[in-house]
Amino acid sequence: MARDLILITDPDDPRIAAYRDIRERDLVGREGKFVAEGKTVLNVLFSNARFEADSVFLRENRVEGAQALLERVPQHVPVYVASGEVMDRIAGFHMHRGVLAIGRRVDTPGVENLLDSLPEDALVVALAGIANHDNMGSIFRNAAAFGADAVVMDQGSCDPLYRKAIRVSVGAALKVPFAREGSAEGMVDALMARGFEVLAMSPHGTVDMTEVKPSKRMALLLGAEGPGLPPHLLERLTSVRIAMRHDFDSLNVAAASAIALHRLWRGEKR
Amino acid sequence: MARDLILITDPDDPRIAAYRDIRERDLVGREGKFVAEGKTVLNVLFSNARFEADSVFLRENRVEGAQALLERVPQHVPVYVASGEVMDRIAGFHMHRGVLAIGRRVDTPGVENLLDSLPEDALVVALAGIANHDNMGSIFRNAAAFGADAVVMDQGSCDPLYRKAIRVSVGAALKVPFAREGSAEGMVDALMARGFEVLAMSPHGTVDMTEVKPSKRMALLLGAEGPGLPPHLLERLTSVRIAMRHDFDSLNVAAASAIALHRLWRGEKR
């Protein structure tokens, strides 16, 4: 069954107000909404029940390629279409992707509630001070690829539903459940109280990543490049290093997450 | 011994012409020059002999923190300093890093010559169609961290000395030797003729990465996300997969390089 498409010809049309000046709005927040971009990301948005969408907005030359996607869009979600010229004027820059949706944030459950919902066998990614949206998106992408059950983070970490973080995550930020706790300490306390072995990644870790033995409940704790994890946290936990050259001792935090999660993943049956 | 610093007060001063309108120039090329940004990157530039620099340019509030770096700058390389306001007008945008250098490209040796210069035990990264500067920079960073001896690439891959690629590589693009060959096939031929086992990374590879046995001369061949490596290349080579969830079968090429290079690295003694 073909979808009704609503043609937008006036950049000031109030129905597409949420798409206006996309970049400027990233800076001031979106009052409970987020922007999803790209066919792959929208496929994730409409394939799981975690988030609802307000609308979809397509560049007209992308409609034909988006038919399979449109079959997933619930009937009550309006699908707007505009010419490239009108879409660019609405967005405020050249939107070469031209496949957009506005999603609605949901109340996240809080770290303790999220952890309580996990199975007995679980792998969690814990983030302290990950303030860069590229890194946040990349870490979610790796978490989804290697089957992490949840991501928890402190208040010093940035928003996984920021436009760029969702895009870099290729939709994983909409797929892997996450929650936020005030402090890194509180997050670690909540994990340990539930029997998680918390592995703290650190260039000076005492255990090499290749020697880590996977256990039933594992959490991988990652801090920002540069400052790294606070010393008082490292002291409480098993600290894990990734061996590399001493004269180029520098790995991006997302690359470190890829190596560590690949190592900890126990395959599809988890 | 303190360095002479040359104060620039006029944004039109011809001595800093190479720093003018930095972003626009990225698009038109730099006639044999490149821009290095940030203290870490400049430390790499001035710690190895591969490239020469024309000049260094510092924001005045960064001079104090750059003393150790300045000791590495050869005496014949002028060091310019400007106020934040003047530097921003020269660069054409807000240069919050404020630590810059112009380097000179050198003639790269060609793939065959570069491969001929490598030791008997060698690890090479081979790139086909890596057109994104973020990915290029990240792959160089991982190559440096895990001791790759060289990077070779086809003409469909982007320039590792593009400003953003150098920055994302944290200087690794200035450290790890690289060369460019016309086609991916020619590059693979050159590797195989020199006894390299070429591992082609592919989501549908026949061997799991964790089962790869390191050999003396290994090359890791990476293609662009999406198209991946051409089928006729995959047929000739050992194709290697990284196992991941079937419902989120998507790993960034730089993340894949991190996992594979970490696996192939044989430690500092190489």
TrEMBL record, chains A, B:
The keyword Plastid does not apply. One of its GO terms (biological process) is methylation. Pfam families: SpoU_methylase. The keyword Cell membrane does not apply. Residues 123-262 form the tRNA/rRNA methyltransferase SpoU type domain. GO terms for molecular function: methyltransferase activity. Keywords: Methyltransferase, Transferase. InterPro entries: Alpha/beta_knot_MTases, Ribosomal_eL30-like_sf, rRNA_Methyltransferase, SpoU_MeTrfase, tRNA_m1G_MTases_N. PANTHER family: RRNA METHYLASE, RRNA METHYLTRANSFERASE 3. This is TrmH family RNA methyltransferase.
